[in-house]
Amino acid sequence: MRAIALRGPVLVCLACLLGLGLGACGGEVGSPALPASASPRIDTFTATPTAVAQGGEVTLRWDTTGADLVDIEPLATGLPPDGERRVRLSQDRFYTLTARNAEGSATQNLSVVALTYDWSALQAELDTLVPDTVGAYVFELRVDDVTVFRSNAGGLGPNSSVFVASASKALASAAMLTLVRDGLLDLDEPVSTYLNGQIDWPADKAGITTRMLLNHTSGLARNNPCIDDAIATLRQCAQVIADLPLRSAPGQAFAYGGNSYQVAGLVAEIVSGQPFNTFFRQRIAVPLGMPSTGFFGLNPRVAGGATSSAPDYLRFMQMLLDNGRVDEERLLPEELAQQVRQSQIGQLARQDLPPGAGQFFDGYSLGWWHTRQDALSNLSAGPEISDPGLFGTVPWMDFDRRYAAVLLLQNESVSIGVQTWDRLRPIILTQLAGG
Question: How many CB atoms lie within 10 A of CB 132?
Answer without folding.
Answer: 6
